Amino acid sequence: MSGKISSQTGLLEMWDNLRAVPRRIVDSAFRSGKPNTDRTRSTFIFGNLFLHLHSVRVHRWSLRWTTTFGLGIVCGAAFLITLVTGILLMFYYKPYPDVAYESIKDIHFIVPTGRFIRNIHRWAANIMVVAVILHMARTFYTAAYRKPREFNWLIGMGLLVITLALSFTGYLLPWDQLAYWAITIGANIAQSPREVTDALGITERFDPGEWMRLMLLGSDVVGPVALIRFYLMHVMILPLALTALMGVHFWRIRKDGGLTRPVNADQKLSPPGGDTYPVFSEAPARTYQIAAIVKGRTSQVGNGPENTVPSMPHLFYAELGLLMLTAFLCLAFSVVWDAPLKEIANPAVPENPAKAPWYYLGLQEMVSFSAFMGGFGIPAIVLIGLGLIPFVEREESGTGEWFGGPGGWPLARNSALFGLSAAIVVEAVAIRFGWIREWFPDAPQLLITFVNPGTVLTLVYASYSVWLIRRFQSTRAGAVGLFTCFLCGFVVLTIIGAYFRGPNWVFYWSPAEWPGH
Amino acid sequence: MTTVSKPARSRLDPEPIPRRDMLGLAALWAAGSALVLAVLGMARLPKAAVVSSPSKRFTVMLPDSLQPGQAFLPSGRSVAVFRDQEGTWAVSTICTHLGCIVRSTPAGFECPCHGSSFAPDGTVVRGPAPRALSWLKVSAAGEKLVIDEGTVVPPGTKVQV
């Protein structure tokens, strides 16, 4: 008797529990109750693996539109979009020569939404490259790379390189003319140290160029092995590396004390709105254990975390808004412009002109003077220079302010004018009068390699920077000059490569003048 | 957390390492070198012992109508073949700059990618190309020619067929 009753209550209990399953699953997912008060939102953020990259509260300065223009988040959002669309494309893409081309055509013409997804992937990749460059410029011009953020600047350099490598490896996959010849050129740039080893006559014994080309292509031709290598790097190795570095990058922002802000940020901000309120009614007289593990001068003694707002929802809304904006841009561009697909790769006939993706056209312009210095030497000098900035420039004035430091905006503007005109003058000379080989046909190769418009421009920029350091007695001024000049040089060379180079890489004022062929 | 540092001993008379530390260090170094060796071993993988590439030797028959100074371009090959009274020779049409295929023109060769141009014998006339175009090995096989894209011969090597 009693057994029967208990079995009935047991069943009833189970029934009740079953009905409560959905609610309990939801409850169990939130470790500290639903995030509906500031307190539970805080615990929600630091109890959540993904959200705890954010600090619980964020300074109001960081949320100002003009502090960052949201560029870092746009980079991340664009990467997220390429990730999603890239995985979708992998459903149909086959990484084998010729078959690859057919599969892209399938994606383009017979897969529902295939063309649109491919367009989005391509536009998101382009937006990512632009956003990464602008984000770097923002970080530089607000002097946000300074202590304690030097290491994050280095991580950012890694992210820049990986972003460019992702774009480059993705370029081969369609196996069309555009792809094939861009990769042929790219692989031969990897081989270009030969230009120097040949001139020195040591290629027989020491041939790093050929080794790099072989590593990249896995063969001495751009064939199936090369395609698999590029595919593997594009869909696996580089995205994983990027994700890992991105995680470190975001995490370091938090650990380095949030976004950079000027020392007088609190005075510059308008009084907080009605929805922000002091966290501590009294500033803490001392912080306890934290002081032992947190470095820096701001052990929050006598100074509560005021002028901050909860990250949830304020920061999250900003991030969501930027994700939506990025997605909107990708969709809008994709509706209007299709990703290009030329004829199937033909190893016998190069495109004329064979142009790399736009962000490499500056490089291609330099490569047209010397493969080694243009494709290897100068990029290496620029990367090393960029990496050294936060370790050589150790000043403090102007941190967190746009164009902060000695010289300010006028210095950046004048440097831009100088950088643009120097690049245009050097290019004009090379285009109008030719260069050493046209003047002295028997000039030795080493001279042509090391003295060309690209290296001359680099030297002009470097001397300008040294002059600025002496004039302003400030490394920051020199850095601003150099960075601005390189941005300007990049822009000028890219524009010339994109719009003013025609068949045989000859200068034309417009494509309308190109000879028919 | 404060530690009291012991007075330093001379570099020539260092503090003896306790056995535990010694074993620990040895284990650490062993683990470290094992990892390094493993990575080095894996680094050998990307370079195959035999690199797959299409055959570089091919046979070709020159048309009787080929004039001196006129290039014969075997289809699917990056080679230009010439013939005159002194003999036959083959010039690679792969640009020594960045590997584009140069076009044969009456004045020599022109590269479409970065504007290098070459004289008929392959020497650089203009542009960024660091080296002259290679001359390739030509040999006779009956009425036909065998051209080996993988074997470079000194410029000026002409073969009587």
Q: Strand portion of chain B, in percent?
A: 25-35%
The main sheet of chain A orders its strands as 1-2
CATH fold description of the largest domain in chain B:
Rieske Iron-sulfur Protein
C-alpha geometry of chain A: globular
- How many distinct beta strands of chain B? 9
CATH C-level name of the largest domain in chain B: Mainly Beta
Structure description:
The complex is a heterodimer of chains A (517) and B (161). Among the domains of chain A are: 274-306, no CATH class; 355-517, no CATH class. Helix content of chain A is 65%, strand content 1%. Chain A contains 22 helices and 2 strands. Chain A has helices at 2-29, 38-46, 60-63, 65-68, 71-90, 99-109, 114-141, 150-172, 177-190, 193-200, 208-217, 224-255, 265-268, 290-293, 311-336, 361-367, 371-392, 408-433, 436-439, 445-450, 453-472, 475-499; strands at residues 57-59, 308-310. Chain A has a two-stranded antiparallel ribbon. In chain A, helix 7 runs antiparallel to helix 8 (150-172). The radius of gyration of chain A is 28 Å and the shape is globular. Chain B folds into 2 domains: 17-49; 57-153, Rieske [2Fe-2S] iron-sulphur domain (Rieske Iron-sulfur Protein, 3-layer Sandwich), CATH 2.102.10.10. Helix content of chain B is 16%, strand content 27%. Chain B has one helix at residues 19-43, and strands at residues 57-60, 79-84, 87-92, 103-105, 108-110, 117-118, 124-126, 135-141, 144-153. In chain B, the strands form 2 sheets. In chain B, strands 1-9-8-3-2 form a 5-stranded antiparallel sheet, with no helix packed on it. Chain B has a 4-stranded antiparallel sheet with strand order 4-5-6-7, with no helix packed on it. In chain B, a hairpin with a 2-residue loop joins strand 4 (103-105) and strand 5 (108-110). Chain B is elongated. Chain B starts with 18 loop residues before the first helix and ends in an 8-residue tail after the last strand. The model of chain B has no long low-confidence stretch (mean pLDDT 87). Classes of the chains: A mainly alpha (517), B alpha+beta (161). Chain A binds chain B through residues 181, 184-185, 187-189, 192, 194-195, 198-199, 214-215, 218-221, 223, 225, 229, 347-354, 364, 367-371, 434, 437-438, 441, 445, 448-449, 452, 503-506, and chain B through 46-48, 51-54, 75-78, 97-101, 110-115, 124-128, 130-131.
